[in-house]
Amino acid sequence: MSGSSILVGTDFSDGAMSALMEARALAMRLGAAVRVLHAFAHPDWSDHPAVGRWLARARLKLDDVIAVAGTPWIELTRHGLETDALMLCIGSHGTGGFQPLLPGSTTTRILARTTLPVLVVRPDRGSYSSMEPMQRNTNSRITQQKTENV
Q: 30 FRET partner, CA 20 to 30 A, in 7, 10, 43, 150?
């Protein structure tokens, strides 16, 4: 295992919440830490009401989020590589996603440019109102292969 943490990108969307829950479940199995990063364009991002609601659902404090100014796909990729993250975990669609059948632009750019493993999580995997790990589909070869290869 090259890194000791899973880096989760957040834009405080439902997709990011799904990614965080998957990262936490995987981190428990791997004995890894979970870190959350938000790249922002506007310095007053933390004042938005959605941020507080998301943090409450995630049971995190604002100080738990690594906040960096910049473009999300660039900063998440850069930070993951610089900190030797085990992997990146991102939602398939964030606040800008409009086409449900294709990954969002941030996700697509990360997948095309990083050398780190990336776990992409769909936001429609269920409701995560508690911190319990989600039930995994053990019939999924992809899930099993990704977990075994990490």
A: 10
